[in-house]
Amino acid sequence: MGTTVASFSRKCSVSIFAFKKTELERRIGYRFKNRDLLALALTHSSLRNEDDYLDDIDSNERLEFLGDAVLQLISAEELFRRFPIADEGELTEMRRVLVNGKFLAQKARDIGLGDALKMSVGEHESGGRRKTSILADAYEALLGAIFLDGGIDSARKFIERNHLIDIDEHLESDSHVNFKGMLLERMQARGKQPEYRTLDSSGPDHKRTFEVAVFGEGREIGRGKGPSKKAAEKAAARDAVEKLNKSKEHND
Q: Which residue numbers in the chain have pLDDT < 50?
């Protein structure tokens, strides 16, 4: 009786997993020719601990490695094409934003990837389907599977459709871009260092506003305000980077 119930339970689990795979394909707009690749991409390593007979099961870790490389390449290609006047440091910073684990996890949530994952009962009960690291890794594994199944063009279409659709909005968010780092690289390339000076602070203690200017090569190159010195410095750095970009575009 117990064996029959266990067998029935496993068959139901397999059927549900197959349904979720098909639903995921519909969401991402890609139909796998080799569905074993999709199944592998959705298999979390925790499943190895589910039962003794699963000790040797393959997980999505190798596909994750491959997907990461594919995402780095296609993101770099898109940024290179989209921002023709950006230098190496700026392109590197923007690519870092696009391959950040939190961003990948959010993209995974957008396509309902967590619900389609196959993992151990323990991992599931601990909230594994919502964990940022698991979702980000699975997203890369899915991309790796698409690359192996359909080639670089299929991988590029998936990234354009699901990953880069809101690229401008995401890159323009102050919370994601390290403008101070970008400015530092620009200045160091000229053998200089940016210097930040607090020009003013106003308002009550619980609601202060700081104004900061950043100087380079003996002149002010950017200015910004913020609720803290750090925020004001970032605003000043952004102002400086934008001005430098405009100047470079004009000179070109």
A: 1-16, 53-54
